[in-house]
TrEMBL record:
Residue ranges constituting the CzcB-like barrel-sandwich hybrid domain according to the UniProt record: 96-240
GO cellular component, one term: outer membrane-bounded periplasmic space
Residue ranges of coiled coil: none
Pfam family, any one: BSH_CzcB
Species whose genome carries this gene: Parvibium lacunae
Source lineage: Bacteria, Pseudomonadati, Pseudomonadota, Betaproteobacteria, Burkholderiales
GO MF terms, alphabetically ordered: transition metal ion binding; transmembrane transporter activity
This protein's UniProt keywords: Transport
Family statement drawn from the similarity comment of this UniProt entry: Belongs to the membrane fusion protein (MFP) (TC 8.A.1) family.
Domain (CusB-like beta-barrel): residue spans on this chain: 244-321
Protein name: Efflux RND transporter periplasmic adaptor subunit
Entry keyword Transport: yes
Gene Ontology BP annotations: copper ion export; plasma membrane copper ion transport
Length: 394
């Protein structure tokens, strides 16, 4: 019994020793691989990079580092006075009309649809209105009475000259004629208010509402058979000329002294991130909004190509009226070393130069710099990688 137990203990010790030796061999092999594998890769990576000078570096074609680099052409931009602010594009209310019914009526026919471009005088909707029919009848009655009173006045004048009647009869006829003139004018004015002075609207005894200006139908709130009237909460149509738009900007208090009417406004829209649109500041509100602690600035923007649309997301910044253009580069291109800031310029494909920048202004997305960067391409992605390689080579 004692001998067999000793044999089992020896076997167990032998197994554990062999197991530990196997683990040790595996670790040695793995460690040796980890130390030797990166050497070819490091050698291969360094073979693609050549430092030409303390500020210039070249990367050969096909180098893996090129996949992490991106360059863009430099662009000019008016030196902004404030950072870009969120803006709301809206209709130009001076070129917008809200069409309502002047009397209670029922919709007979709709001639215009949402999105239609209409000309001044174009028919929008035809209404059947008893009050309108009464207005037409009042005009005809007044005109007939006026013609009768005119004849009576002329007859009285002839009789008076023949000494057949007294002068008082002539004066009475003249007074009746003047009353008829006033009544006719009142009836015609009432009808003109309903038809906007358009005689074509009186055809068939129906009232046709017409466009008062050239523009686009941007809202429609009626259907065939709808009952409409002067007490409606919303207009039947909204027509706006979109060739100009108003843009509202909420201006923080700290910028109030920098923005005034007449200066330039520059708009960028999410729909056109690479483009900018120019406008003019029209008004700065005299009252601070107590909720937002902002002043409302209204700008006017031309929109002849109809690319901007009301309610688009946009940002606006402001520049002095005679502001000079400066160079604008993305902040991702900047490298900060101490108090100095740099960017890499792509001299030619694969060759880059590190240049010091004179920053004039900066916002959360762009920096505005002086100097001559005409025709240059700046590295906007991977600038830190280039800087690390340049420092390592020096």
């Amino acid at each position: 019994m004692f001998g067999s137990a000793s044999i089992r203990n020896v076997s167990r010790k032998t197994f554990f020793v062999l197991a530990l030796l196997g683990i040790g061999v595996a670790l040695v092999i793995k460690y040796g691989q980890s130390n030797t594998a990166p050497a070819p890769l490091a050698k291969e990576a360094s073979s693609h990079i050549k430092v030409l000078s303390p500020s210039r570096i070249a990367i050969t074609a096909g180098a893996p580092q090129l996949a992490y680099l991106k360059s863009e052409p430099t662009e000019t931009f008016p030196l902004p006075l404030v950072e870009p602010l969120n803006a709301r594009i809206a209709y130009n209310e001076n070129n917008t009309a809200r069409i309502t019914s002047p009397i209670a009526a029922r919709v007979i026919q709709i001639q215009a649809e949402l999105g239609d471009n209409v000309k001044q005088g174009s028919g929008l909707v035809t209404l059947d209105a008893p009050d309108y029919a009464q207005a037409v009848a009042d005009v005809r009655k007044a005109e007939a009475d006026l013609a009768l009173k005119d004849k009576q006045r002329q007859r009285a004048e002839i009789l008076w000259r023949g000494e057949a009647i007294a002068r008082r009869e002539v004066d009475n006829a003249e007074a009746d004629f003047q009353v008829a003139v006033a009544e006719t004018q009142r009836a015609r004015q009432r009808l003109a208010n309903l038809t906007h002075g358009d005689k074509a609207s009186t055809q068939q005894g129906l009232l046709t509402l017409r466009a008062p200006l050239n523009g686009t139908i941007v809202e429609r709130h009626i259907n065939p058979g709808s009952e409409v009237g002067t007490g409606d909460n919303q207009p039947l149509f909204v027509i706006s000329n979109l060739n100009t738009l108003w843009v509202y900007v909420d201006l923080p208090e700290r910028y109030l002294g920098k923005v005034e009417p007449g200066m330039n406004a520059i708009l960028t829209a999410d729909a056109y991130p690479a483009e900018r649109f120019g406008g003019t500041v029209e008004k700065v509100s005299a009252v601070l909004d107590p909720t937002t602690r902002r002043f409302t600035v209204r700008c006017l923007f031309p929109n002849s190509e109809l690319r901007l649309r009301p309610e688009m997301f946009a940002q606006v910044t402001f520049a002095a009226k005679n502001s000079l253009d400066v160079w604008r580069i993305p902040n991702s291109a900047l490298i900060v070393q101490g108090i100095q800031q740099y960017a890499f310029i792509e001299l030619q494909p694969g060759e880059y130069e590190k240049r010091s920048l004179d920053i004039l202004s900066k916002d959360h997305r762009y920096s505005y710099v002086s100097g001559n960067l005409s025709g240059q391409r700046v590295v906007v992605k991977g600038a830190l990688l280039l800087n690390a390689e340049l420092l390592a080579g020096n």
